[in-house]
Amino acid sequence: MTGVSVYRLAEVSKHKKCRGDDRSVWTVIHDKVYDITNLLLEHPGGEEVLIENAAGVDSTESYEDTWPSNDNREMLKDFYIGELHPDDRTGRAVKRKYFDLRETREDESTDAPSLTLYLFPSIVILLVSIPTVFLICQNQIYPI
Question: What is the pTM of this model?
């Protein structure tokens, strides 16, 4: 990790001052350290949510519980300041949750289309065509 700053969790925990001129709030998400001080006033849930759940701690689970969008994940990169020291990592994997379930992600297979995609229209066409065929056959046997 050349050129990347590495922080201990003890250092991150010192950065939970949310008032005054020297305010500084850091958090850890997926073993990455973020300085979210400038996010406090802009956060849609208000600064209290960040202070209670993220200030100075590993907030990976709290973050993923909000089902962050891809835009949110991209925005988080602006606050990145370094990596958590390997000795402070829990090793526990927290599954990434996605808000927009319509988006295709690399970890999902899109090779097999849904059976419903083909089955439902086929049934509708079959049901509509039965009376039509019946009427055509009846008119040929007994012309009007």
Answer: 0.61
